[in-house]
Structure prediction request, 374 residues.
Amino acid sequence: MCGAPVQTLDLEGIDVAKESIVQGTVVRDGSPVPGAYVRLLDSSGEFTAEVKTSATGAFRFFAAPGVWTLRTLVPGGSVDTETKAVLGEVVELTVSV
Amino acid sequence: MSRADVLVDADWAEAHLSDPKVVFVEVDEDVSAYDTGHLAGAVRLDWKTELQDQVRRDFVNKEQFEELLSQKGIGNDDTVVLYGGNNNWFAAYAYWYFKLYGHADVKLLDGGRKKWELDGRALTTDVQPRDKTSYKAQDQDLSIRAFRDETVAAIGNKNLVDVRSPDEFSGKLLAPAHLPQEQSQRAGHIPTALNVPWSKAANDDGTFKSDEELRALYAGVGLDSSKPTIAYCRIGERSSHTWFALHELLGEKDVKNYDGSWTEYGSLVGVPVEKDV
Prediction:
C-alpha cells in the first residue's frame, strides 16, 4: 500500500524505537481541522509524503531523522512549519491555520 | 492527442456531472473515502479487490474486467472520468489500467479529490446505481506495460525512471514516509535509473504541471526522448502518474509502466541493485 492510513495519534502497535515520527494536530482558533492536507517536504523543499487530517485534525509521518517542513493546505491557503525528526522520538506539533 | 483529450478540470467536471454519457469513477486506496462523500453520480472502483487478482499477483483478466465494468454500469461508448485521493495516484493507475484493456474515452480529473475539496466543491453521500451494461474489453495493450525481464534488460539501454521519493531511491526508506518502514525486501534502485519523483510533475493542489514545465523537468534530468522509457515506483501507482505525464500529456511514444515495481524488483534474486546510503 502506498496511500495514507486513517490518521491517528495512537502509538499502539508501533515500534517507536525504530521510527522517526512527526505527528500532530491541525487547528483553527483552537478547534481541530479535519480534511486538511499536510505535505512533508525534505530539507531541499522536495515533496516526500502527504496525508489528510482525520476527524480530530490528526496527522502522522514516519520520517527519517533530519530537518523537514510541513506544508499544510486548507481551502484558501497554506502554512509552512519547520520541524526536526529524531530516531526513536515522537515529535508532537500543533499547526494553526 | 492533447491535454484536453485526457485531462479535464474541475469546472468541466462540475458541468458534466449530469451528462448521461460521462461516468465519474472514484478510485482511492482508502476505499472508505467514497463513503464520506463523492462527486454526484460517481461510482466507486476498488483498486485492490476489484482490479487485482485475489490469488495470483496480477491484474484481473479480460473477462473479469468485462464483468466488473458491466456490473458498474460502464459502457464501451461512455466517457470515463477518473479521480481520487493521493494526488490521483490510484486514479492514474486506473486510467492506465483502462487504457491497458482498451477503453476508448478515458480522462483524469486534474487535481482529483484534493483540488475538488480545496475548491470547496460539493460532495454527496448519495449512491446512484447505474444500469448494468455488456462491456467488451480488448486484449491487454502490452505496449504500455513492462514486466521484470524487460526491465532488467533495459538497464543501460532504455530510460528507467524511478518516480519514488529521493529517500526511497537512495535506499534510506523502503516506503513512502507516512507508512511504517517494515518491509523486508532490499532497498535501493535499479542501476541507471533516473530519480524523478512523481511529485515534481504535480503542483501542491495535485494538478499536473504545464506541458512546458513537464518537458523542462524530464529534459533537465537527462531523459533521452529518442529511447523507450520504463517508469516504476513501489507498486506501480505513482509510476502510472508519471506514465500519464510522459505518454498522455507529453505524447512520448514508447513509455511503459512497470507495475511490479520495487516490491517485485527489490525482492528478485540476483538482479543488480544500486544503493546510495
User: Anything to note?
Assistant: DSSP finds ten helices and ten strands in chain B.
